[in-house]
Amino acid sequence: MGNDKSPRNVAVAIIFDSQTARVLMVTSRKHPNLWISGSPRDIAAPTDDERLMMIAMEPGATKRPSVWHIHVIRTSEVAVDGTPDWPEQDERQRSWFSLTDALGKISQWGSDLQAGDSASNEGKVAKGPAKKALKGGAMETAFRAFMESEGISPAEQP
Q1: Most CB within 10 Å of its CB: which of 112, 131, 132, 153?
Q2: CATH architecture of 8-151
Q3: What is the dihedral angle through the alpha carbons of 132, 7, 15, 35, rounded to the nearest 10 degrees?
Q4: So where are the chain's domains?
């Protein structure tokens, strides 16, 4: 099992309110100062899920490649905010951001490399920054592809 080279499947959700043109993001459990795209568990509200794309990532910090499955979940801020109880509410914060602000939050995954990782294993600490940069790059690619599919330019965002 340790030599498994099959791709690791990673699901990413872009939770989007088309009326406000904002996305829901949550703080990372491992890196609470960093924001990530949300997941269906973070909303507990009715959604319209559509698969947007797949991103194949080469191995970097991991020993095997990753395939990121990107899903767009259309909902409304009113519906989400009207359901204050959600499974990880004691572990994370959630907030709505414009797509431009969301890209700024995602870019912090690459610029936050100096922050260090809390892993106790020396090998994990060494690969932490590379893994964070890979995750940030995949999220940024997903958000940019979503913006393009919606015909939204970062310059058009409030």
Answers
A1: 132
A2: Alpha-Beta Complex (3.90)
A3: -10
A4: 8-151
